[in-house]
Backbone:
């Protein structure tokens, strides 16, 4: 059995992403936990084999809390997955019955147009899948919720309408982590650099040109940076840690040379992992 | 009368920042509004003269919603202010009475250690100042809340204990905006470049080295970048708009030359404003 921990209730989008990543393998067991920290801790303490962690949504942007946990985690990243977020209106009534909708504020916000057009009152809840449980317990035809198709199936509450989000381009990127084997080899990523991605974290001196010097090295080695994210350092206000993803394998000679050069320009550098690059569509 | 709109209830940290920015000028009238969008709209429609908008907290990081609004706003930035966030325990009882605390989840999170040490149950609310209203209405000695000193004074509920946050380095940076006069002159910022800050937004081609080329120009002109933030484009997943702050005045010859060079490398560029650089301590 492969045990994967995720944050949220059963039927959460995170659980869906885990199932997609492991190809709906029958040997997958998904473990729901209340917080991101508990998800990672369960893998650190070997209660689970893998953690799945949302790091960025294509509409809402980066998940700050996840990045802060990546900074301090001893786990390594061994994969990424892009999961399409498809919000459904779920409840026991018909479209004409519904006047109240429960869901996470982010899901409510992403379906604003639909809710306004249908003059529906909204009630914020802790998470999307949890709102299906609430609506089921209430058993009222006028009360529905917004969650995934998965959640509708798990709690056996029917979908009234699917595809109700304002913007159909709604994807979340997740990272998959496991205990660091010390070899930095991640999952099988034997392909050439354009098929691998490497994630690093670094902090730089608080002086002019410090970030530029790192980027200059990536440019000189012809490395394609796919993402840069800054997160505040907790101890010194307005100084940052940078999270960078780029195409390439850390064991490739060119990449490894670049990384050791970058290391000299940084106060701190950590390689989160090399893993196969996923396409989101 | 100078009218300044802010998000939240009276006594919110945003209101405190507005009062600090305008030196507690007696002619200031602060207007509370429920959302960031309504705050900016009130200035666009000239119901208020200025908007104050939180853009970044030194612990939690950037406020994504604010950056998304800056992208589309016709307003210009005319100032910045760093405001210290000092969480206080507020209620009618003593420390020994309190077993339940109401506040915004972020404030509860920032006082986690204090709450755990005192074995206090937490109840999340919509905002910090609003939780003072709730606690006042309840009138129970065992129920307190976390909010600013300002909020304690406004609602006349005493401070039980101040300085209860885990990390004392808790600052929020706010921008002050007003209608664009078309001259790009902002507030008086006649000093040399090291006393001015300029904020720009740009998007770049989705190709290797595109961000590097912009940074290379800033480096070549000796410009000190103080902040870089990426926010997702809403229409194309995994493409970004970049928000950059740097020291310098847009009317300075060197800066203006650099900006026109950068413009050629970008798909879109907008100057949010030049304003006097504020120190946070």
Residues:
């Amino acid at each position: 059995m492969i045990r994967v921990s995720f944050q949220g209730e059963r039927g959460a989008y995170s659980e869906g992403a885990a199932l997609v990543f492991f190809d709906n393998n029958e040997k997958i067991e998904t473990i729901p936990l209340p917080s991101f920290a508990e998800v990672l801790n369960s893998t650190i303490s070997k209660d689970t084999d893998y953690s799945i962690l949302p790091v960025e949504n294509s509409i809402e942007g980066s998940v700050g809390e996840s990045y802060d946990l990546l900074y301090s985690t001893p786990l390594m990243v061994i994969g990424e997955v892009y999961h399409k977020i498809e919000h459904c209106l779920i409840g026991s009534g018909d479209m004409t019955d519904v006047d109240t909708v429960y869901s996470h504020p982010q899901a409510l916000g992403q379906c604003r147009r639909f809710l306004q057009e249908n003059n529906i009152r909204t009630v914020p809840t802790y998470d999307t899948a949890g709102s299906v449980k609430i609506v089921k317990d209430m058993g009222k035809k006028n009360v529905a919720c917004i969650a995934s198709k998965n959640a509708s199936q798990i709690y056996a509450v029917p979908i009234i309408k699917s595809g109700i989000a304002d913007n159909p381009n709604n994807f979340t990127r997740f990272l998959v982590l496991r205990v660091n084997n010390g070899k930095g080899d991640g999952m099988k990523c034997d392909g050439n650099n354009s098929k691998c991605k490497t994630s690093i974290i670094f902090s730089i001196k608080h002086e002019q040109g410090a970030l530029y010097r790192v980027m200059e090295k990536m440019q000189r080695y012809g490395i394609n940076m796919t993402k840069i994210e800054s997160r505040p350092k907790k101890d010194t206000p307005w100084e940052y840690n940078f999270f960078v993803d780029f195409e390439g394998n850390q064991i490739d000679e060119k990449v490894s040379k670049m990384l050791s050069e970058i290391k000299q320009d940084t106060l701190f550098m950590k390689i989160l992992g090399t893993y196969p690059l996923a396409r989101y569509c």
Chain B touches chain A at residues 56-62, 64, 167, 169, 171, 173, 208-209, 211-212, 215-216, 218-219, 222, 224-232, 234-238, 280 (CB under 8 Å). Chain B is about 30% helix and 35% strand. The first helix of chain B runs from residue 13 to 21. The two ends of chain B are 29 Å apart (CA to CA).
